[in-house]
Design a protein that fits this description.
66 residues; mainly alpha
Amino acid sequence: MNLPHPDRGMTTSEYAVGTLGACTTALVLHELATDGFWFDHIVDLFTRALAWRNLFDGFPVPSLRS
């Protein structure tokens, strides 16, 4: 007797929904990264986190915004 195999893959609609979700996430992250307000906050967060471990001691920190 030949039993059907369980569904182990994604269907076309699942690929479409997954692709749409990935593109939406990428768009939101891109908008956050290029918006001046959020970009400055993200840079400040990383700068303070790295400075906490004294990783910037003795090294000039260049400005990321001109």
